[in-house]
Amino acid sequence: MADEKDWIDYIASASQNLTNIKTIDKINDINGVIPHSNYSLNDNDTGFLEYSNFTTDDYCSSNHSHVYLNVTCEFPINYAEPMYGYIAPFLLATTTVANTLIVVVLSRRHMRTPTNVVLMAMALCDMFTMLFPAPWLFYMYTFGNHYKPLSPIQACQAWNYMNEVIPAMFHTASIWLTLALAVQRYIYVCHAPVARTWCTMPRVMKCLIYIGIAAFLHQLPRFLDRQYVPHITVWRGHFEEVCRIEMAPWVHALSLDGYFITYFGFRVLFVHLIPCTSLVVLNVLLFRAMKAAQINRQKLFKENRKSECKRLRDSNCTTLMLIVVVTVFLLVEIPVAVVTILHIISSTIVDFLDYHIANILILITNFFIIVSYPINFAIYCGMSRQFRETFKELFIRGAVTSRNGGSSRYSLVNGPRTCTNETVL
């Protein structure tokens, strides 16, 4: 789902269609129709080709399975159905509730800081990454309709946009927002004077807009790279109109190899490799700065400089919380990046990847990305007293928290605000 659902579609279709598209076209010319995607014993009477001895696995490994939209063959169904059909609905509900609470809490007046605005945008992107494909996941996997032909054309287009393109767009934005969050914190901790210029609220808002536009432009070709045309086939003894997938003429004009290599190459470099590498480096630098600040805090404590000591403690709390957020992100994103890089190498240099295993791996890694979405709420509640206090004031009856001198002067983890509305060392 989310980020790499679009990749799975092309593991099977793009890489195989690059070599099999001529064969498929010849079959279309000869037979006029192609049997439906899900064939089991005596399930379909095609009248054209004999599939009575085909199992679903046999059919999905054949050239015919990618002629038109075939949800059963997109994923290893034995894994996809329980994960996306039975577990994902609970994760969707949990993510929607948790991220909505994050947005409500962080949007409170006294919680509006540059860091909190980025955290709120991340929560929205993660939630939309799950909300858009949710109706289709329910229909296909929860209600067990993945084997049925999908029609009309508008339904096939909606499936493509809502299940692949739009979630990938929001997840891409979430990745870049996480990088922006880490860069912002690095500036606060290691270059405090610069933060007064670069980490103001107007600049952060502009950064969020730029990230949203860049994520949309990155996925724009995916809105236009394929088209669905009506296709008549015989399914379970009667004629059925399904959607045949065709690549757009402009993609053929560029060449399929050139288009897919460019798209996935850009994605590997700018959505996976550079962000993940940068986040690892920034996490290490932030951790070192936090340890140095801890040593400095101990010296201040011995000198009885309690005010400065408290400021360093609060800043370290903020830094530690964001390190944890970024670490959780890296744990689920790096495996996806590795498999995607292997796919690029296997498609362009040497063919070594077993795509059945790759499909299973990418399915599992995507599932863990979904699992990670509600975790940030737990991190904020566990590591931010100010977040907990605001949450209690909003949702727990009678829980009124006193703000000594105004806790509105504090950021997400009780850090005293400067003129940049954020914690600095």
TrEMBL record:
- Does the record carry Cytoplasm as a key word? no
Annotated ranges, domain G-protein coupled receptors family 1 profile: 98-380
Q: Which molecular-function annotation in GO is an example for this chain? A: G protein-coupled peptide receptor activity
| GO CC terms of this entry | membrane
Main location class = membrane
Span-the-membrane segments of this chain are 84-106, 118-141, 161-183, 204-221, 264-287, 320-345, 357-382
Q: Which domain of life is it from?
A: Eukaryota
Q: What is this protein called?
A: Sex peptide receptor isoform X1
What lineage is this protein's organism placed in?
Eukaryota, Metazoa, Ecdysozoa, Arthropoda, Hexapoda
